[in-house]
Write a structure and sequence with these properties.
With 374 residues, this protein is of the alpha/beta class. It has 2 domains: 206 residues, Rossmann fold, CATH 3.40.50; 151 residues, 3-Layer(aba) Sandwich (Rossmann fold). It contains 13 helices and 13 strands. The strands form 3 sheets. Strands 2-1-13-3-4-5-6 form a 7-stranded parallel β-sheet, with helices on both faces. The protein has a 3-stranded parallel β-sheet with strand order 7-8-9. Helix 6 packs across helix 11 and helix 9 packs across helix 12. It starts with a helix and ends in an 11-residue tail after the last strand.
């Protein structure tokens, strides 16, 4: 996502608390990338979590003086950048910081130690105050789905316009279908992938789980003989697994869910929870089916849903609504609309001195600016 925004503004300066050139596969090597004091600490994938309390200060330390436009891509703190009063700040919000807001109860319940739970709870309260104040400084919010739109309204009291994220649908095409189903996800507890593992253990049907993460060990231990794990694989292998599967199974409440669109671009249906972005990306009874409840309800749906009756062309056409070209057109339009609104607001003001024309960008990912699948 962030790299798509960078490509739309090739001359823009880029700001990030941490920058990892290797992680972005050199795609930003020719750009001016400004980092925060956290860069000197050289955090790794194993150590960055210990620095999380410092990220708000790191974001606010970035010097964004003198820009007409700042575009931030935020899943936690990037929207908190401090801009000049004349600057138009457009934030693309993937989700308010989930562990301080909609996932806070789950995060606290997973802490067995009452002392660490109390400390974390206090930290979340501080983050929510900072987050709400930071959100009031943004001029215009954009977001990925109606689900996140509702969270931004509820948590921040702000309106956000939905601009669906870019999906490179051209990378996928229908192929010969096999017998397996696929889960494509980071293996995190909130993704609830154990529901799929239990369902396929019960059905004794083949399931391929694609992805890595802290839940890998636990899921492997509960998996029966028909459930296999690939770990993280490259884009070409993802394409082959999706195009040949009976269906993609989505067990999480995704804010948008790019994998569901990718599966449909490959001509395959999606069996997803009746929540979140799936309500916008999956056409029930045409390009897939929606379910609720636990693993038994999922197992029942798999037994009932005839994947062979799904027309791959319907899936491909539906996926085209979310193609990257749509995003590349809509995001600049939204930025221009924000600039025009500011110009209208200043219509009665005296002319000001020319300023630097181009947009800057600010982003937080766990390891700074990184590449890979969205």
């Amino acid at each position: 996502m962030f790299l798509e925004i960078c490509d739309l503004y090739p001359d823009a300066d880029i700001f990030s608390p941490i920058y990892d050139e290797k992680g972005t596969e050199g795609r930003l090597a020719h750009r001016r990338v400004h980092t925060s004091f956290l860069q000197r600490l050289k955090p790794t994938a194993r150590t960055f979590r210990t620095l999380l309390p410092l990220y708000p200060a790191a974001i606010e330390s970035l010097d964004l003086a003198g820009y007409d436009v700042v575009i931030s891509s935020s899943s936690a703190w990037a929207h908190g950048v401090i801009c000049d009063e004349q600057t138009v700040h457009v934030c693309y919000c993937h989700n308010p910081f989930r562990y301080a807001w909609n996932e806070r109860r789950r995060a606290l319940d997973e802490r067995g130690d009452p002392v660490s739970r109390a400390v974390l709870g206090a930290l979340f309260r501080r983050w929510r105050v900072w987050d709400w104040v930071a959100a009031q400084r943004v001029d215009r919010y954009l977001t990925n789905s109606q689900t996140t739109q509702a969270r931004i309204r509820s948590f921040f009291g702000r309106h956000a316009d939905v601009v669906h994220p870019p999906v490179r649908t051209h990378r996928f095409a229908p192929a010969v279908v096999g017998d397996h189903y696929v889960v494509l996800s980071e293996l995190m507890s909130h993704k609830r992938i154990d529901s799929a593992v239990k369902a396929f253990n019960q059905l004794r049907k083949p399931l391929v789980v694609v992805g890595g993460g802290p839940e890998m060990g636990r899921l492997r231990r509960m998996a029966g003989p028909t459930v296999t794990f690939t770990g993280r694989v490259d884009d070409a292998q993802v394409g082959r697994l999706l195009s040949s599967c009976k269906a993609l199974v989505v067990t999480a409440t995704e804010e948008f869910g790019i994998a569901a669109v990718e599966a449909q671009a490959a001509g395959r249906p999606v069996l997803a929870r009746s929540e979140g972005g799936a309500l916008e990306t999956v056409v029930g009874g045409v390009t897939g089916a929606l379910w609720s409840g636990g693993h038994e309800e999922l197992a029942d749906l798999i037994e009932r849903f005839d994947t062979s009756a799904v027309d791959p062309d319907d899936c491909v056409r539906n996926a085209a609504r979310f193609d990257a070209e749509v995003f590349r057109r809509r995001l600049p339009e939204a930025v221009e609309e924000a600039l025009e609104q500011r110009a209208d607001d200043r219509a009665q003001s005296a002319p000001r001195e020319p300023r630097r024309r181009l947009a800057g960008g600010a982003l937080f990912y766990p390891n700074g600016v990184r590449g890979g699948r969205p």
